[in-house]
Design goal:
Elements (H helix, E strand, L loop, with lengths): L3 H11 L4 H10 L14 H9 L5 H30 L1
Helix pairs in contact: 1-4, 2-3
Length: about 90
């Protein structure tokens, strides 16, 4: 289950409208279909997972990995900008 502190990190990395980004990433990883029902995950389900209403370890791990990747990418971009400014 995603904890409130983790939710803050996810929202700060992905923004308030994180569900479409998460769904896109899940599709790329071929994890967008619920194996129990055969239905694709939707924005509401992703929001409930991030809010801690539902537990789904596979999707939770994918969300956290995406947030970490995006945060690293933003840090690299910031470092490049800073380097250009200081040059």
């Amino acid at each position: 289950m995603i904890q409130p502190a983790e939710k803050e990190i996810i929202v700060s990395a992905l923004g308030k409208q994180y569900s479409p980004l998460v769904l896109e990433d899940l599709k790329k990883r071929n994890l967008h279909v619920n194996p129990n029902t055969g239905n694709e995950y939707d924005n509401k389900y992703i929001n409930r997972i991030v809010n801690g209403d539902f537990t789904n370890r596979t999707v939770e791990n994918a969300i956290i990995e995406l947030a970490v990747r995006v945060k690293k990418q933003k840090s690299k971009e910031q470092a490049k900008r800073l380097k250009k400014l200081l040059s």
